[in-house]
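Team,

Forwarding the record for the chain on the shared tracking sheet. I've put the sequence and predicted structure together so nobody has to dig through attachments.
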Amino acid sequence: MKIAFVGASGYGNVGDDTYPLVFQEQFRGAELLFFNSDLPAEMPSDLDLVVLGGGGIIYNSATHDESPSPHFRCMQFYMDHAIASGTPWGFLSCGLQLRARRDEYFRTDLAPWVPYLQQADFITVRSPECVQKIQDITGRKDGVSFFPDAAYLYRTHAPAPPAGGRPMLTVVPAGVINPHNQHNQHMVRLARSLDYEVVWMSMGAPVDDGTHLDNAQLLDPTVRIIRRPGPAAAYAQIGASRLVFTGRYHGMIFARAQGIPFYVSEDAPYKIRMEDLQADPADAQGHVETLKAAMERVQSGAKK
């Protein structure tokens, strides 16, 4: 079976680069192709399924004239291809990516997505709030399910960083978790007073995190910096930590998956704030089961 996954991997964001690894592990018997917003000249003509996800790809940062955003138009390319070719398609382990301080405008911001969300064969999302909002704007009552993010299924055998005998605080910058935030500085000072080693680690693209890491190094030349760890190294670093401060969604996921205490700010992005921290991370397997059911439907149709 040939499946095209459309996400945001390949740009250096550790969380987005984790999804292909999870899907490759879970669907070893299938031929998997991965695409993102660098659109191909054409899509393969022999696809059996088109999957949008994982990640927070359901968003529309509208322009000043309220026209669909470039991101939406890129995703539209793939959805239109699936519809025109009659290829079954849907969303897997996705999230709504609402703009800061615009939560109440989600109906307007997500309007271009509505006809596509209504037509998708399956939709799995990573928070109960996402389910409610999709049902609100589409009117559909079935085919939309919540499971914890698929990245909870990620495992690696990468060696842990060498232990220096001191507890370790790992800081994953984004948003207010940054070197110049006064509250963050205060928390780091408290950790140092308890003899914690402080490590700053990027989990975003270099264009997003480079300045934060440079500033952390300027403020404290002795601090350890991890610039481009990749999923395996990031997972191992977080697993070796006593505590994690993170502004990145997958910094929280990697910590929670390994039972590492973590802190996120009250002003965290929508996807972090909406995470159901009571849900069992093992329930992320629901995304896999949903896609397996879609694959079985395709195979049954082919047999007929």
